[in-house]
Specification:
Elements lengths: L3 E7 L13 H7 L2 H6 L4 E7 L18 H19 L3 E6 L5 H14 L4 E6 L20 H5 L20 E6 L4 H8 L4 E4 H7 L2 H13 L3 E7 L21 H14 L2 E7 L10 H13 L19
Parallel strand pairs: 1-2, 1-3, 3-8, 4-5, 4-7, 5-6, 7-8
Helix pairs in contact: 3-4, 8-9, 9-10
Length: 313
Amino acid sequence: MTKTCVIVGCPMDSGKRRKGCLMGPDSYRTAGIVSAIEDLGITVTDLGNLHPEPVTVSTTLPDHLVEPLETIAWTNAISDAGAKAFEIGVPLFLGGDHALSLGSGLAAARYAHSQNRPIFVLWLDAHSDFHTPHTTASGNLHGTPVAYLTGHQGFDGFPVNTTPVPEENVAMIGLRSVDGPERAKLQNSNVHYFDMRSIDEQGIAPPLRAFLDDVRAVNGMLHVSLDVDFLDPSFAPAVGTTVPGGATMREAHLVMEILHDSGLMTSMDLVELNPFLDERGRTAQVMVDLAASAFGRRVFDRPTLSYVPELPR
């Protein structure tokens, strides 16, 4: 892994109705993400927060979508910023809702294509996000990035995806909330997917290592997208789409440490943090710790956290 991490702040909040994710990037900074990565001997370049230019495009998108033009504008801005970040080091996209992966994943796919290398995507999420704008019942575009990145139709007005990710190059780990239409699409796709039952039965390491072996075998680039709701909400409550039964802290850190050991991760998203729903910054700190593990922090490097109750005044 390169010795430079490039932070791209994406205070995007247009991908769903419940607001609050726009505070995510600054919450990560407040929780010490820069120092956590710098302490590992990695140079951190923080490009600040993006401010997309408004777009006015004529589209055939359905009327029930939530803020589609804002999401298109964000996709343009994030993919452009991502292209610049890849030239410097390993981009770390701080969100922001999961619709930001429309742009970050597009940037990763384009950069891999420019390097004549295949792109792979690891989706750590309770949801498959495999809808298109025409199949989502909620109208929330944070449920569409994987379909967009794998070249599905229906994204009129969005940047044209000329470098789609092959479905077999996508692995979803941690699924536990997939609706009927998405389930049918997944079962008829080449996407690798592992729900929490399969993780309970075989552990979280075997499917991850098998996927990483596929990446390594073809000298692939790996984009990792980590959603707060990959974790059980008892550890990470600051997300608007809580689903009980998620990954434990031990499982999540194991995933991050295996990723670092592999040396294959070339970009990363931290998404869906809603600080408005957090408890004393708890979830932001958890996500910072996980990112640090992905960049090389080991168990014996991890600081002990203490809780001191607030005394009455």
